């Protein structure tokens, strides 16, 4: 029997939420917090039309139209080590350089993980919404730098995904944050991790909209000045939870 040809992926059509796919991916992620591919599967399963909404919002903020018009590919820009090396110590770019050196992460590495997780068509396609999806992916590590949430620990990632949910409205972020917070209560018997995740969400709500930033300019800004301008608060509950996990001899959950 002949089968109907599969239609090519169209970023302009909101994706239906796939709760079964998201739950399966969350289970794998909670079993292995370093399995980053599952994060992208959850995002694709649950975020629906969030990317479209955020792109349309970008067009309404000062300078956002210019960013959308030029469509800078941040994975490529952030992988230019000579450019990154040009930022002074104490700037966002200088702090990002230290982040790269300390973790061994890279913008292109994260892009490759996303392609492995959901295939090249979902993000590589030439479409404004697909560009916005790549932008959200590529600024993730810069948000680690701006917020102070470490990328190489489960607590820091959980706090940043809660922050990201507040910033973007992406349900996938909330799903991951809730799963990690609930697991932390079961593992530790304490609420410190949970409180840090809630703090991450609150800080994301009160901060300026980071999607609307010109990141080429932002990287040259002194990091403490950038945090003040963007109203990114000191993550006190996060520091408390870090100390609590360390005292219990836990590096993750």
From TrEMBL:
Any one Pfam family match given in the protein's UniProt record, by short name: Coq4
Protein name: Ubiquinone biosynthesis protein
Record InterPro entries: Coq4
GO terms for biological process, alphabetical: ubiquinone biosynthetic process
UniProt keyword terms in alphabetical order: Ubiquinone
């Amino acid at each position: 029997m002949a089968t109907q040809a599969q239609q090519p992926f169209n970023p302009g059509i909101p994706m239906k939420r796939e709760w079964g796919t998201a739950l399966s991916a969350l289970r794998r992620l909670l079993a292995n917090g370093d399995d980053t591919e599952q994060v992208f599967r959850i995002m694709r399963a649950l975020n629906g039309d969030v990317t479209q909404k955020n792109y349309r919002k970008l067009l309404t903020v000062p300078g956002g139209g210019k960013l959308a018009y030029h469509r800078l590919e941040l994975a490529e820009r952030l992988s230019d080590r000579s450019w990154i090396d040009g930022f002074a110590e104490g700037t966002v770019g200088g702090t990002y350089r230290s982040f790269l050196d300390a973790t061994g992460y890279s913008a292109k590495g994260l892009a490759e993980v996303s392609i492995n997780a959901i295939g090249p068509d979902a993000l590589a396609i030439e479409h404004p919404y697909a560009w916005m999806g790549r932008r959200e992916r590529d600024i993730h590590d810069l948000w680690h730098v701006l917020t102070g949430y470490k990328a190489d620990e489960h607590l820091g990632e959980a706090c940043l995904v809660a922050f990201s949910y507040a910033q973007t409205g992406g349900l996938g972020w909330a799903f991951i944050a809730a799963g990690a917070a609930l697991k932390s209560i079961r593992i530790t018997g304490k609420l410190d991790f949970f409180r840090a995740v809630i703090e991450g969400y609150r800080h994301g709500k009160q901060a300026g909209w980071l999607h609307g930033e010109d990141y080429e300019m932002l990287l040259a800004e002194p990091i403490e000045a950038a945090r003040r301008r963007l109203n990114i608060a000191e993550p006190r509950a996060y520091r408390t939870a870090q100390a609590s996990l360390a005292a219990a001899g836990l590096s993750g959950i």
